[in-house]
Amino acid sequence: MIPYEVEYLRASSVQQALSVLAQNPEAKILAGGHTLLPMMKLRLARPGLLVDIGRLPELRGITVHEDSVSIGSATTHAELEANAELRQLAPLFSRAASVIADPTVRNRGTIGGALVHADPSADWPAVVLALGAEMEVVGEQGTRRVPAHEFFVGFMSTAVAPDEVLTRIRVPLPVPGRVAYRKFRHPSSGYAVAAAAVAIEAGQDGYAWGRIGITGVADAAFRAREAEALLEGNFTGLTDRVDAIVDAAFAEVSPLEDNFADGEYRLQLGRVMLKRALLDALEPLG
Length: 286
Ligand SMILES: Cc1cc2nc3c(=O)[nH]c(=O)nc-3n(C[C@H](O)[C@H](O)[C@H](O)COP(=O)(O)OP(=O)(O)OC[C@H]3O[C@@H](n4cnc5c(N)ncnc54)[C@H](O)[C@@H]3O)c2cc1C
Known about the structure:
This protein is α+β, with helices and mostly antiparallel strands. The chain has 3 domains: 7-52, Uridine Diphospho-n-acetylenolpyruvylglucosamine Reductase, domain 2; 57-172, Uridine Diphospho-n-acetylenolpyruvylglucosamine Reductase, domain 3 (2-Layer Sandwich), CATH 3.30.465.10; 178-282, 2-Layer Sandwich (Enolase-like, domain 1). The protein has helices at residues 14-23, 36-41, 77-82, 84-89, 92-97, 103-108, 111-117, 124-130, 148-151, 225-231, 242-250, 263-282, and strands at 7-10, 27-30, 49-52, 62-64, 68-72, 134-139, 142-147, 152-154, 157-158, 165-172, 178-185, 192-202, 207-215, 222-223, 233-234. The chain has a 5-stranded antiparallel β-sheet.
């Protein structure tokens, strides 16, 4: 399919991108283009002007601070998979990145594009929810920090307004010590039919808490709060609570349905992925 004719601007700064967005309601940010360009070819999106932020140095790369890791929104999936420091500090990133689509998509697609597009089957939403990340969103009025659990507001819809740019993803350190990601891939696209990200911290006093991010199952990725409440408590015996945690995670969920997976099948895949992720996270370190 051939895209229609469209104006293109390679932004020289986030500030320039913001003022172009403010002056052109038909303009849209372009990052890796791996969602927006296919949508334009299918005429599902029709921006009149593409504002390319994909190569802005201020939006690329991973910076480690004392209490957080800051990831530029235009950092590619492949860069997140390969970064040795991130692999050590927050291994969920490399685990999730390694199962996104294929090398071509991973080399061009960006974490920011995936988060703002908010496909209900995208991988990164589950990861940022489980890690309690914060999104830095910049507009002409200033900068906002949006916690991951307030970022995904509905089907392909986020807290980012059309005239704003997601600039960075901040992950608090230290990341919980036991993390896992399990995904049932769609056999054709590689997107998650159902996937679960789990981050559990077990203190020296034997007290455990954790976060659970689920993607693929409902119209937007979500934190399984009821399940997290059951997870919290004595670490010993957590394995015995796994089935109850899984039940609680999906008790109130209205599942997505499509030609590949009806609601019942999708919920069942979600349960299986979460159970496996919990058991992975609970395995003795060694
Ligand atoms: C064949 C194929 C398979 C795929 N499989 C998977 C998969 O298994 N798992 C998965 O998670 N994803 C998958 N994807 C999606 C892929 O990860 C995309 O790269 C990602 O969804 C979008 O990132 P992008 O950088 O390409 O964004 P773009 O396509 O450039 O932009 C996407 C949307 O986000 C907006 N946007 C982008 N960046 C910003 C920003 N910083 N601030 C504000 N708005 C912004 C754009 O305006 C646009 O609306 C797949 C894509 C393809 C083509």
